[in-house]
Structure of ABC transporter substrate-binding protein:
Amino acid sequence: MRRLTLIAAALALFSGTAAAQSDYPTRPITVIVPFTAGGPTDTVARLVAEPMTRALGQQVIIENVGGAGGTLGARRVATADPDGYTLLLHHIGQATSASLYRKLSYSPAKDFAGIGLITDVPMTIISRADFPATSIKELIETIKTKKQDITLANAGVGAVSHLCGMLLQSALGVQVTTVPYKGTGPAMTDILGSQVDILCDQTTNTTGHIGTGKVKAFAVTTKERLKTLPNLPTMDESGVKGFEVVAWHGLYAPKGTPKPIVDKLAAALQGALKDEKVIARLADLGAEPVSQEAATPAALDKYLADEIAKWKPVIESAGVYAD
């Protein structure tokens, strides 16, 4: 009799869990962006939130939890209940944090369930408007000549601009003076004010300033030239062979989130990436959505693993770590 009671209880629990998964979502979903509002990652998150809200029938709320290069917000999601109501939208820093932080309290590879890739955002190498170089070749020559007299801004340890700057110094075989800021906004403000020399940042943040001439643009960090910035050469064609950095973004749930919920979120994300407004807005910013095949849990999990392996030697070679 006791055994039958236990079986009945287990079946009731399973039935209730299955029903909860099939009814998901029944309340608003919070997407944690681990950076301040107004930055490139925040822009991407708010773009996809609206069509995902329509698809899921519940409000997708963006919450900015900045600090520690994105690790504070990521940790919050890693330790959240795996019920699909707390998600993480992070950029390439999700991969590089595995090597950058010696005392990371979570595992980027093990503590998250991938939902899907969102977009690859190209990077541009820009300078203050009154910087003397007029071409990427002149910029490279100036960097190699002046070295630590050159100031290179970034949005903080672990930011994409920081990673791009490390790769640039490694590729050119020189060290400049890096100037970390608490976010992309302050870094761009000082570039616009001619307080620092150069910055490598996402097109979502630089395209408008390039168009108005408020900054000087030298190159893009993609394999091919961009349709939105056709006059800018790639670093590869400028002589820095193999130089490529893209600020990819992905959507994650905590590890252990039931597969039916992950699949429902992935379907909503895929729909958002086909939304004409999302496509048009990303195009304005020099970016585009990933393919439908890439906006899947399996694709993101593999891409994350590959990126962790790619950036580990770059970070170790630079010897730059954060506690």
